[in-house]
């Protein structure tokens, strides 16, 4: 009887995985694999004709697909009980604040919240409004201003010096951070106004001292998803060195593919995977990481943060570029003699971004950018709020589409 039940459970899990991943594959990756397949044949002198599927990618399909998958897998693993409340289940899948770009919620956290009554909580609502205000600042002042600069530099990268291109990569790093963490803050804040608690998705990632820490702070809902449903099932880090390398590379290649059907995303994931492997083994065999952690030096901390930020910034070039060729061309132009020249334009905004990171450094132990509940003087609090609103209205750039809406 138990054997039959086990087979039935595995069959149902298989059906769920096949359906969810099948829909994701058809809409997002079908044309990519067909084109790659034909290019391989072309390399061997065997050109074949094909016709691509003209499909419109549903907004946010990667996010709610992973959300439903986590529910199915957690039920199969008996970590949660299957719900009999159909309305609550579909509300969990289609909860509007985080539907199109996350955070990718777990059923164990969000689903029970639909099944209990909610009472207005003034403190949570105020914090929700702070999150929304901070998210709007990140999106409209940081991300959208960066986007105007980034689009011009990347589209005309052959016309600029290496120093300007490096600044362009930095601007893109802040664009995607302000854009995505801004959306997450707005989503979490909106949910909080409605009495729901969503998981934190960003935790000041550009203050990370190594790449491992970066992935604990960046897009937390996705990185923990891959950890729980891909990395650990593959064996995690309790395996041989060769298997550990394989596990890490699989996770980051899949993560790259999740972001889009393009070789640039795969290469972006590969860079992070390789650097993370090197970081892990250097820490494991030289004890360098443990030694650095014991050093109470702000200089060493800033140095480590700078190295990590530089690594992430270089990888962002592949994320932003349209093709692998363009990405390598961009990097080749960066690492030329002109890297040491004075960058062209936008120096004031670069200084503003440095100032913004300094503010994040001050807030690094708080839950989010505008978590200023520790300030007791109300005039100071309201000055900060009004100044933020003023900057949104006066320095917010032309509206740009959220980057992660394409995923």
Q: Could you explain how this protein is built, in words?
A:
The chain crosses the membrane at residues 12-34, 54-73, 244-261, 267-286, 298-319, 345-362, 383-405. It is a multi-pass membrane protein. It is found in: Cell membrane. Its main location: membrane. Keywords: Acyltransferase, Cell membrane, Membrane, Transferase, Transmembrane, Transmembrane helix. The chain is mainly alpha-helical and 407 residues long. The chain folds into two domains: 2-115, no CATH class; 122-406, no CATH class. It is 67% helix and 0% strand. It has 15 helices and no strands. It has helices at 2-43, 61-76, 86-93, 107-110, 122-155, 162-193, 211-217, 220-231, 241-259, 263-286, 288-294, 298-320, 324-334, 347-362, 378-395. Helix 1 runs antiparallel to helix 2. It is globular, with a radius of gyration of 23 Å. The mean pLDDT is 86.
């Amino acid at each position: 009887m138990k054997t039959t039940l086990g087979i039935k459970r595995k069959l149902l899990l298989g059906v769920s995985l096949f359906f969810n991943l099948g829909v994701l594959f058809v809409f997002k990756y079908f044309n990519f694999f067909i084109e790659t397949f034909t290019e391989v044949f072309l390399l061997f002198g065997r050109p074949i004709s094909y016709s691509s599927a003209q499909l419109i990618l549903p907004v946010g399909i990667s996010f709610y697909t992973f959300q439903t998958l986590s529910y199915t897998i957690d039920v199969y693993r008996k970590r949660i009980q299957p719900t009999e409340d159909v309305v609550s289940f579909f509300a969990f899948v289609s909860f509007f604040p985080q539907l199109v770009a996350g955070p990718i919620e777990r059923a164990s956290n969000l689903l029970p919240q639909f099944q209990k009554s909610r009472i207005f909580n003034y403190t949570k609502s105020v914090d929700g409004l702070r999150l929304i205000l901070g998210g709007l600042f990140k999106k409209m002042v940081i991300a959208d201003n960066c986007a105007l600069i980034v689009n011009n530099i990347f589209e005309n990268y052959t016309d600029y010096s290496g120093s300007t291109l490096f600044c362009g990569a930095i601007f893109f790093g802040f664009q995607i951070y302000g854009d995505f963490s801004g959306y997450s803050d707005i989503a979490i804040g909106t949910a909080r106004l409605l009495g729901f608690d969503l998981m934190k998705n960003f935790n000041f990632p550009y203050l990370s001292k190594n790449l491992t820490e970066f992935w604990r702070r960046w897009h937390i809902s996705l990185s923990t998803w891959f950890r729980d449903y891909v990395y650990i099932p593959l064996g995690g880090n309790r395996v041989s060195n060769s298997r550990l390398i394989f596990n890490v590379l699989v996770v980051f290649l899949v993560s790259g593919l999740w972001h889009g059907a393009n070789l640039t995303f795969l290469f972006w994931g590969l860079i992070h995977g390789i650097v993370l492997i090197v970081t892990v083994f250097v820490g494991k065999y030289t004890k360098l990481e443990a030694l650095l952690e014991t050093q109470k030096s702000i200089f060493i901390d800033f140095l480590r943060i700078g190295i990590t930020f530089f690594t992430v910034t270089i990888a962002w070039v592949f994320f932003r570029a349209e093709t692998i060729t363009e990405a390598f061309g961009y990097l080749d132009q960066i690492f030329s003699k002109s890297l040491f020249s004075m960058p062209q334009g936008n120096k004031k905004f670069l200084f503003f971004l440095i100032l913004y990171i300094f503010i994040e450094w001050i807030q690094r132990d708080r839950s989010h950018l505008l978590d200023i509940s520790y300030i007791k003087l109300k005039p100071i609090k309201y000055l900060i709020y009004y100044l933020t609103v003023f900057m949104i209205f006066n320095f917010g750039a032309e509206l740009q589409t959220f980057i992660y809406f394409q995923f």
